[in-house]
């Protein structure tokens, strides 16, 4: 009796140097590292950021890499900004195989924002935290859905945080923690809803990352205490996160969806 099983989602055979990826927050440490990692294997990257200065820095630091980089200044918390970025990518390269939604994090990051009483969190700051971390990922995924469905393939990587899991040893506050938890839940929903159309959606969840931004405020005492919480006695770099993001975007992870990869040197 012939099988009635549904055929598995198509896996494209495009080589890495013919694939195009959108990376939001590409002017920052993690986004810039993800863009560099993808460019290093020859892929096309559309780098999106709100800062032209940061985008110029990413372009300068990656100009010797074999892939092709295009940059666009856009606000990914707005529908118009996201549509502008997606249209630009398709115009430049014809198709998009994946997106890394790295834009997010905290505004005005410093050690004082990590233990904030609820009464000190204004509604405006709460809404801003969700716009930056959740709305940006939602808007980009929604804008790319028809494109991915039409080609029968697409990879989505959203950047969450260990703070999503309410780990007392990790960084965050109620607004940030819950926003990153929403990113994880959103990613899982997308993976189920769009999986049969060949779209994979996964998360990368960092803990403390030694980016340039973090190095501006962290001190030796804080770093030493954090190292004590890790199984490896180490703290990941933006390049470590870039590797995790690239893993989920590239074809070696085509059989994986709805998962969260913790890149945190073993913090639990």
What does this entry look like structurally?
It is a single chain. Helix 3 runs parallel beside helix 4. The termini are far apart. The protein is of the alpha/beta class. The chain contains eight helices and seven strands. It has a seven-stranded parallel beta sheet with strand order 3-2-1-4-5-6-7, with helices on both faces. 41% of the residues lie in helices and 14% in strands.
Structural classification: alpha/beta
The biggest sheet amounts to: 7 strands, parallel
- pLDDT averaged over residues: 90
- The residue fraction in helices comes out at 40-55%
* Uncertain residue segments: none
Strand order of the largest sheet: 3-2-1-4-5-6-7
Euclidean distance between termini CA atoms? 49 Å
Sum up the overall morphology in one term. Answer: globular
Q: Any idea what the radius of gyration is?
A: 18 Å
Number of helices: 8
- Strand coverage percent: 5-15%
Order of helix and strand elements from N to C terminus: EHEHEHEHEHEHHHE
| Extended strand count | 7
Task: Summarize the SSE layout with pairings.
Layout: E1 20-24, H1 29-40, E2 44-49, H2 52-61, E3 69-73, H3 79-93, E4 98-101, H4 123-151, E5 154-159, H5 174-194, E6 199-206, H6 212-215, H7 220-227, H8 238-249, E7 260-263
Parallel strand pairs: 1-2, 1-4, 2-3, 4-5, 5-6, 6-7
Helix pairs in contact: 1-8, 3-4, 4-5
């Amino acid at each position: 009796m012939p099988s009635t099983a549904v055929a598995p989602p198509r896996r494209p055979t495009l080589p890495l140097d013919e694939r195009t990826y959108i990376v939001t927050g590409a002017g920052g440490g993690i986004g810039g590292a993800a863009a560099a990692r993808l460019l290093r294997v020859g892929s096309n990257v559309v780098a999106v950021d709100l800062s032209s200065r940061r985008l110029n820095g990413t372009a300068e630091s990656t100009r010797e890499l074999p892939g092709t980089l295009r940059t666009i200044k856009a606000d990914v918390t707005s529908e118009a900004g996201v549509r502008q970025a997606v249209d630009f990518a398709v115009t430049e390269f014809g198709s998009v195989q994946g997106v890394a939604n790295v834009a997010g994090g905290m505004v005005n990051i410093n050690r004082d924002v990590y233990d904030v009483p609820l009464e000190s969190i204004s509604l405006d700051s709460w809404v801003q935290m969700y716009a930056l971390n959740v709305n940006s990922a939602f808007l980009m995924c929604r804008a790319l859905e028809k494109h991915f469905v039409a080609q029968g393939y697409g990879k989505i990587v959203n950047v969450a945080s260990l703070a999503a899991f309410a780990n007392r040893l990790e960084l965050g506050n109620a607004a940030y923690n819950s926003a990153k938890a929403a990113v994880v839940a959103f990613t899982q929903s997308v993976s189920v809803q769009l999986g049969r159309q060949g779209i994979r959606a996964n998360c990368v969840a960092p803990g403390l990352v030694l980016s340039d931004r973090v190095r501006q405020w962290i001190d030796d005492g804080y770093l030493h205490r954090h190292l004590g919480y890790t199984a490896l006695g180490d703290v990941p770099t933006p390049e470590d996160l870039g590797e995790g993001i690239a893993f989920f975007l590239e074809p070696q992870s085509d059989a994986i969806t709805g998962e969260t990869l913790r890149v945190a040197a073993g913090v639990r």
